[in-house]
Amino acid sequence: MKRTLTFLITLTFAAAAVFVAGDFAFIQTSDDHSGFGQYCFKTISRIEKNKTYPMGEYGESQPVEFIVDTGDLCEFGPWEDYFKNILSAFDSTGMPYYITIGNHDSTWSPTNPYIIRKYGAAYYSFEKCGCKFIMLNSAGLLDPRPTLKPEALEWLKAELKRTGPDKPVFLCLHHWLFESEFSSAYESRKLMDIIHPYNIAAILVGHFHGAAVKEHEGITQIGGGSTYGPNDPGFMVYSVKDNVLTAAYNRNDGVVQEIYKTSLEHNRIRPKVDILTPSEGTAYRDDFRMEVTCSLGDAYTSSVKADIDGKKEYTLTGNGGRYGVPVDIDEVGEGAHYVTVTVTDPDGTEYKRSGYFYIDKVDSPVVWRTNIGGSSRTAPVVTAQSLFVGTNDGRMYAFERESGKQRWLFKVPGFGAVTTPIVLNGTVMFGCENGVFYCLNGSTGKVVWEFNADIPDLYRGGGPCGRGEAIYSTPATNGVQVYFAANSGSVHCIEASDGSANWLNDDCYFNVESALKLHDGNLFYGSWDTQVYSVDASTGQKNWSEVGAKSRDGKAVLYYAPADCAPVIKNGKVYAADRGFMLAVFDEKTGKLLATKENVSGVGESDEGMGFVYLRLKSGVVKLGNKEEEIWKSDAATGIVPVPPVVADGKVYVCSDKGVVSVIDEQSGEVTATYKATPSSYVLVPMAAYKDTCYVLGSDGSLTALRFK
């Protein structure tokens, strides 16, 4: 007999309210792409403090007082003088300006450290004339895919609670919430669930370079166009007078496009939806019955539907404000899932609410799971006793490997994005966005020593807030020295015992993001300057550098550099995958290009002493022998995220873009097991494995230990 659980939802109405804002105007700029021509500077030069702008049929604006920019300020982040130049252009307007981060600001060379120094955090808020402005970061760190980070959403909840339901709120972020680049509809649904009870005047976005307005679940999104263009460069003017908001796009050619007009009164009467069961993040072993209670009432409810993972749809039936439907967990499948409930009234208006849950049967491979409450671009690192993992908001955790119990937590003051750590002689070492390389006691999490990588004379391009020599690359060690790379491309060698400086190499001129690999006395790494490097680990002198496979075709060479996935050194060769999904094979000693292969997003290696290389393809995994011959090809779910397969205990582990873990037999290439580790959230970092257990970290903050029979 299967135990039945209940899926319970309550629905209530929020009361309407009136709030009167002051009269004011501001400008939204977006998608400036400084460093990709001078077009944006011409547009920004048209912006003047206290000037009124034509609003077409809406008349004239109020005098403009400040600027918000919704991202992609630079083509490649704070490289060269591009970031400094765009901020200088804003400075010349004489007005305050507030910045959100776009994918171009956070992929090749992140601006995060500068934003944190300037505004106090990568996401922040301010108030003007009785309105609240929230500058939210939707850009993936060191990755072009948008993501709504769990730590940012928790901050947003608290910020809106302090704001109250009546004050008009302008939510500013780079990405449209309905776009397909998010890992799933659940990504934007999480945000909508948070903001629906509040008086959201508009969501201001960029990314598409177009001036447009579109509704999303009853809330208006406005695209701010582009100061760069290439079509119709300009900026958006917002004016508030007598509690009425108008928006018009002022193009450089003099054309004015009326975009939007609305009252700032909070007159949307919206039901409140709460999912009570299955409770958020709970795992279930048996079939359950979805149940929904809805205070909207039977007469005002045309339909109640639910879907799981955006695929399986259910129609809930009932009366008296209570509706339900049985769910067979075998049809849903094991692992992490998200559910979206949609209540529709007779007018066709939909009210939604989402949540996530797990299905783990009795023989589930889950050993333990926890949620670290933050996103991460650092891989878990596992030892016999412990598991170490860092987060984008600057935390380093230590967990007991077998139980998942937290041992300690170290928080970097004010900054985020710690690197994947290394463990050496009872210590844990990693770098951070604040330019500090830390050595912690592995048992207590206390600081043993720190090394500051902030060296202004090496920084190319300066920056308005200091050098910001952020560290994103995974370090390497020979047991005596530790090697790490930084955002400017410099590579440091320091002593593991006390953190004293040994040597520094600055041959590379752009961010080094991927892990450093130490092999036979040499360091190997890729950079966003298009090169793969070999450096003598004892002296810091460059042995050779060669351009990656995709960058050799001369088209958008920096975009497709061999910089995401760390190179693999096997059989006297260096295997380096790039963002253009090409693999280059170089001679280890000379750097001579020996071969290339297409459709490769990541490259991993066999255990020490074995000569095999494992390629993550856009679809599937390939095992290569020492002459690049294909031994087998597996049809495991993968995708384009540049994350390598991991090999341990006769198994090859690979996780798809959206959280499906596959276990591949190392000898045959057969997929022996799968498990859905995230509710379709991106997995952007490599897994860790120790003997018969693997560990997967999702962008939703979930950390899962899996042991497959």
Could you provide a short overview of the structure?
With 709 residues, this protein is mainly beta. The chain has 6 helices and 54 strands.
Largest sheet: 8 strands, mixed
Low-confidence region ranges = 1-16, 456-468
Radius of gyration: 26 Å
> What is the strand tally?
54
* Shape designation: globular
Task: Please give the alpha-carbon distance between the first and last residues.
Answer: 26 Å
Number of helices: 6
Strand residue content:
35-45%
Percent range of helical residues: under 10%
Strand order of the largest sheet: 1-17-20-19-18-21-22-16
Mean of the pLDDT scores? Answer: 91
Instruction: Tell me the structural class.
Output: mainly beta
Describe the structure.
With 709 residues, the protein is mainly beta. The chain contains 6 helices and 54 strands. The chain has an 8-stranded mixed sheet with strand order 1-17-20-19-18-21-22-16. A hairpin with a 5-residue loop joins β42 (582-587) and β43 (593-598). α4 (150-163) packs parallel to α5.
